[in-house]
Amino acid sequence: MSKEMVEMGWEEVAIDSGDHVQRMVEMYKELDFDVYLEEVKPEDVGRCTDCYEASGEKLFRVYTRRKQEQDK
What we know:
By secondary structure, the chain is an alpha+beta fold. It has 3 helices and 3 strands.
């Protein structure tokens, strides 16, 4: 995560793919968060990604911040 994103209030909350990412986005938006997705390569994750690679799923870092933080 870049220094600028941290200064703007963004926090990494997950690395996932597929339907899991969509459910997280929906949940955080319902809780009044901004959500930002960043596609990542499996080799950049730093943990086992064999299942994701085998299924050909795209991996995303999920970042969130409370909406009121964007105005600071």
